[in-house]
Design brief:
The chain is built from 15 helices and eleven strands. It is globular. Strand 9 and strand 10 form a beta hairpin. The protein has two domains: 202 residues, Cytochrome Bc1 Complex, Chain A, domain 1 (2-Layer Sandwich), CATH 3.30.830.10; 180 residues, Metalloenzyme, LuxS/M16 peptidase-like (Cytochrome Bc1 Complex, Chain A, domain 1). Helix 11 crosses helix 15. The strands form two sheets. Strands 1-2-6-3-5-4 form a six-stranded mixed sheet, with helices on both faces. Strands 7-11-8-10-9 form a five-stranded mixed sheet, sandwiched between helices. Helices cover 45% and strands 20% of the residues. By secondary structure, it is of the alpha+beta class.
């Protein structure tokens, strides 16, 4: 069954995607993330995400939690560079209440001064937790090296320095200028009555006044990338993160780039896993990932290695990337990778929350539903020449940045 898409009078977009399930999920996707902040407000989007769970004038935090988790449901949120999402997944008979609760949080969060000061400590502890994780440090430093001087390279959670001065008024003003109907997508997936759910969304979210604003971004390529960055930590091994800047999510080459990523570092049969771990025993865990933003992106390889083998491992990784760039791929490897991606897509279609994020992010990225079938056709149409061409474009040695976390 095809999703039903509509737009409320105030500009808020709605996606209703009924499917065979015994549950339902509701999500609010807001086009507001760390990239839309300034150096002084860095981390405010992530902080707002935390504060929306701290109650409204009519609901205490415990009331919100019990209404979702008390019914066996899952309730969470996440903030990224260009969006923030709040979602609940629970037995289908409670979907109406989930819509009421998340809408209340989105529209009427209390942002109490006392709760705000307590939550600052929680978020700062979260930042310190990630600072204790070498893979997180390597990844964060790499993104800063790839996009220096841009908020796209800034940590999503901000820093203690930027969080400490924040006040309830700052958060409320930021919500008022960013959490706007035109910047928001409401998605429902699973088992539900379409007309009843549509009416409830209209009642809860349709009255907020319509206006635009808040989404200012800088040029992600305005400064040259940083070639190398090193951080010292109390660790036993070296953590490597190798990255290359790419084009944005709207580029038609994204399918070929995703195929390249899958061949190089997705799963145990990938080139990097086979060469670095299986053949040479240089790393327990090595993988690659491809992340797209609206007008930029990054291809990243990560590995934890024995410090004595770090430079040899880096050279091995470089050789594999150059091999992809210089020689391309065989017809057999291309066929296997297409089957791998198609299988992953089919499995994700069985998960309600995966569908929720698929539809929400599609609307934010493209302004329309990009169906599973359209995505699969995009991958099926990729040729070996397409993969080689995109590898030649992305994996140029002069575009490489390397982030290391090494033992003190």
């Amino acid at each position: 069954m095809s999703p039903r898409c509509s737009t409320l009078a105030n500009g808020l977009r709605v996606v209703l995607a009924p499917c065979e399930a015994e549950s339902a999920a509701f999500g609010l996707f807001v086009a507001s993330g760390s990239r839309h902040e300034s150096a002084k407000t860095a981390g405010i989007s992530h902080f707002i995400e935390h504060m929306l769970f701290k109650g409204t004038p009519t609901r205490r935090p415990i009331d919100i939690t019990r209404a979702i988790e008390g019914r066996g449901g899952n309730f969470n949120a996440c903030t990224g560079e260009e969006s923030t999402c709040y979602f609940a997944h629970l037995p289908d008979e409670y979907i109406g209440e989930a819509i009421d609760i998340l809408s209340d949080m989105y529209l009427n969060a209390s942002i109490d001064a006392g709760e705000l000061e307590l939550e600052k400590g929680v978020v700062i502890d979260e930042i310190k937790m990630y600072d204790d994780e070498p893979d997180s440090v390597a990844a964060e430093n790499l993104q800063r090296a790839l996009f220096p001087g841009s908020m796209l390279g800034a940590p999503v959670a901000g820093s203690e320095k930027t969080l400490r001065p924040m006040t309830p008024e700052m958060l409320k003003n930021y919500i008022a200028s960013h959490y706007l109907p035109a910047n928001t997508v409401a998605v429902v997936v699973g088992k539900f009555d379409e007309d009843e759910v549509a009416g409830r969304i209209e009642k809860n979210l349709g009255l907020r006044r319509s206006r635009r604003g808040g989404l200012k971004t800088d040029d992600p390529f305005r400064l040259p990338r940083v070639e190398s960055v090193v951080a010292e930590r109390e660790v036993k091994q070296t953590q490597l993160a190798i990255g290359y800047r790419t084009f944005g999510v709207g580029d038609s080459r994204r399918y070929a780039a995703a195929m390249m990523d899958a061949m190089l570092g997705r799963g145990m049969s990938s080139r990097l896993f086979q060469e670095v771990r299986e053949k040479r025993g240089m790393s327990y865990d090595i993988a690659s990932r491809l992340q797209f933003f609206s007008d930029a992106g990054m291809f990243v390889v990560t590995a934890g290695v024995d410090s004595k083998k770090a430079e040899a491992a880096l050279k091995t990784i470089d050789r594999e990337l150059e091999k992809m760039r210089a020689k391309g791929v065989s017809a057999a490897e291309l066929k296997r990778t297409k089957e791998y991606i198609a299988g992953n897509f089919k499995l994700s279609r069985e998960r309600t929350v995966s569908k929720l994020f698929f539809y929400g992010q599609a609307i934010l990225s493209f302004g329309r539903i990009v169906t599973f079938e359209e995505q699969l056709e995009g991958f099926r149409s990729v040729s070996a020449a397409d993969v080689k061409a995109v590898a030649e474009e992305i994996l140029r040695p002069e575009n490489r940045s390397v982030s290391r976390v090494v033992p003190k």
